[in-house]
Amino acid sequence: MSDITPAKKKLYVGALAIMLAAFLWSLDGTFIRPHLYELSASLVVFMEHFLGFMLLSPFLFLGWHRIRHLTTTDWAAVLWVSAFGGLLGTIMITKAFFAAFAFEASLATIVILQKLQPVFALALAAVILKERLSYRFYLWAALAVAAAYVLAFGAADLRVVNVVLENKAALYALIAAFAFGSSTVFGKRLTNHLDFRSVTVLRFGVTTILALAVILITDDLWQVATINAAQWQLLFLIVFSSGAVALFIYYFGLKLVPASVATIAEMFWPLSAIVLDYVINGNMLTPLQFAASAVLLIAMYFVVKSGQTSVRTFRAAVIPGRGVGHSLGFATANLDKVNLDIAHGVYVVRVRVNEREYRGLLHFGYLETFKLGPSVELYLKDFTGNLYGVTVEVEIVKKLREVRRFKDSTALREQIYRDVAALS
């Protein structure tokens, strides 16, 4: 394991965290949520998010100095993740499974449509986040999706012939797949720009508000008085397993991996659900399911192994800045791309200016030492002249370090000297 690079280690740690979250979700869908079918789906969603927000609320205050500097694009991502991943997706998949448990729809219909989630996520990650991975990654991802289908339909009670698309449950499952898949992509945008603790508490806080509006409109709020002791226990169990705790772990992992890797790692959910069904309920796996499980695990390993994104290039215009670089003794140029879909950090870059290429450093993120909001600042080695109004082409070579707060400007200046030395 000593030959694993720091970048690879981050991928493995992030993927394992997402798989752990997926395991907790499988406990929910298999053993917990079905016992809440007597309550409305929207009320269940409101209660699990309200209770989860209460648990996570300290992180709102701890992260407020960053949260208050979120851009309009970031807040749009918060709203999307909360409305689709937190509210709509959860309500739709809950209604779909409730329909299956009430024999109003086949479980096969729900499973086959819900498995479209990684397809939506992979497509949206390429379009929205501009994630570009190797062809090997996409081959292994396709194999993982295929193995997940075989795993699901290897069960005796899941047959393709049982799939019925012309009912409400099918629509619920399809909407849930899109909602969760797109939420992975917009969640990655958020974790690029914000710590995972703040992302989690924002997701639960905004979803609580949205779910409250829904249950007020549907008049389901008053069902709270009918929740019995056993149901309260299940709701708290969700909070400390598949709800707040699982999402906390999930966003920790999502910060470390591309959205395309995350959506395949999430497929540990159906695998663990079927294994748990065997361990707890004694439902034997068929030989085909055993084979599909092995293929899925192998494919997930190679997805993570080949999950590093390709070199990122972008164009940006130089704009007037706050003068922070000049005050520290470094001539830096501010760029107009504060909504870049890359993780905050300090990067080694190659920059083309007027047909000439320079090596340099890129700082993208909060100016923590000065308690200022995010900015994109560029330092070019061996450059002299004026860059104001010039459009530059930046190619990211590698990430040098994370953005962090220093005790004073002197300590920051010393770190910048060390960063510049890395260009030699």
From TrEMBL:
Organism: Candidatus Falkowbacteria bacterium RIFOXYA2_FULL_47_9
Compartments where located: Membrane
Any Gene Ontology biological process: riboflavin biosynthetic process
EC number, as in UniProt: 2.7.1.26
GO cellular component terms, A-Z: membrane
Similarity annotation: Belongs to the EamA transporter family.
UniProt keyword annotation of Phosphoprotein present: no
The protein's name in its UniProt record: riboflavin kinase
Enzyme category, top tier: transferase
GO MF term list: ATP binding; riboflavin kinase activity
Gene3D superfamilies assigned to the protein according to its UniProt record, in alphabetical order: Riboflavin kinase-like (2.40.30.30)
SMART domains in the cross-refs: Flavokinase
Span of domain Riboflavin kinase: 311-424
Listed transmembrane segments: 12-32, 44-64, 76-101, 107-130, 137-157, 169-187, 199-218, 230-252, 259-280, 286-304
Membrane topology: Multi-pass membrane protein
